[in-house]
Design goal:
single chain; 288 residues; mainly alpha
Length: 288
């Protein structure tokens, strides 16, 4: 896979996740508990991955299990704290704080793997945060309990991206995806112990869960695991942050949300951040 193809694949993942907000909202509207949604989506994904990639599954050994379990653990932590945090803060602040992983990734990558990001990646990451703030934040910004929980979610997503970048160069991305889905499902199922009453599945809820399990989880995370093998962790975080743009567009098209100047400015800044990261401003440089 070429770097351009990898970047386009990650952009497709961001689009899937952005539009997946609608399906997640449908599931919540069907009175499904957050941990129920997580358990269902990861169960569907685990089952599909094992069936489709049976030969890969049979070839999994302990090193792949260990690596996939670590990735799956960070995936679970990210989703769990995002869900819990959403109960104590606003959706806009939850989305913004989750997206701060785009700034966390370069520094963690530097600390853990001793690989410093270039200045263009850092500029791109900071610009992305500014752009996302235009898309998501409304009113005053103050840190509360829910915001602190969401920051842990952002750290979880950052570690998820870094761990994929590290292990995908050692093991099969498909095998890693299988194990991380199984790990995330097991942890989500265990979390259901803390849910007093689980809601029954309705037609609306079932359709939403199927979309989340098949498209937003199986296809999206499989693409991410494969594509990240051919690009950097920092660039991955920046491209995946366009989830906020696609989520905004989906809200406008599907849910009828009105387009305003802040949304246009936010999308423009994020596009500029990606342009700087991808081209490193080569179009402004003159040849000797």
């Amino acid at each position: 896979m070429k770097k351009t193809t990898a970047d386009l694949s990650l952009a497709l993942v961001a689009m899937i996740w952005g539009t997946g907000f609608v399906a997640a909202q449908m599931a919540l509207d069907a009175n499904l508990y957050p941990f129920q949604i997580m358990a269902y989506r990861f169960f569907i994904s685990s089952l599909l991955m094992v069936i489709i990639f049976w030969k890969e599954f049979k070839g999994i050994r302990f090193p792949q299990v260990k690596a996939g379990a670590i990735i799956g653990f960070f995936l679970y932590v990210a989703f769990a704290f995002q869900t819990i945090g959403l109960q104590y803060t606003t959706p806009s602040k939850n989305a913004f704080l989750t997206a701060t992983n785009v700034v966390i990734v370069p520094f963690l990558y530097w600390i853990i793997l001793k690989k410093a990001p270039d200045k263009y990646s850092m500029i791109g990451a900071l610009l992305t945060i500014v752009g996302i703030s235009f898309l998501t934040l409304e009113g005053s910004f103050s840190i509360k309990a829910g915001d602190s929980l969401t920051l842990i979610c952002a750290l979880g997503f950052a570690m998820h991206i870094i761990s994929i970048g590290y292990y995908s160069n050692k093991y099969s991305p498909i095998q890693l995806t299988i194990i991380q889905m199984i790990m995330a499902f097991i942890l989500s199922a265990i979390s259901l112990i803390f849910v007093k009453d689980t809601a029954p599945l309705t037609t609306k809820g079932s359709l939403a869960i199927i979309y989340l399990g098949v498209v937003s989880t199986t296809i999206a995370f499989l693409l991410q695991n494969i594509a990240q093998k051919y690009t950097s962790a920092t660039k991955t975080a920046i491209i995946l942050s366009t989830e906020a743009v696609f989520g905004t567009l989906a809200s406008i098209i599907i849910l009828g949300e009105k387009l305003n100047s802040k949304m246009i400015i936010g999308c423009g800044i994020i596009f500029l951040a990606i342009l700087i990261t991808e081209t490193k401003l080569s179009f402004l440089k003159t040849k000797d």
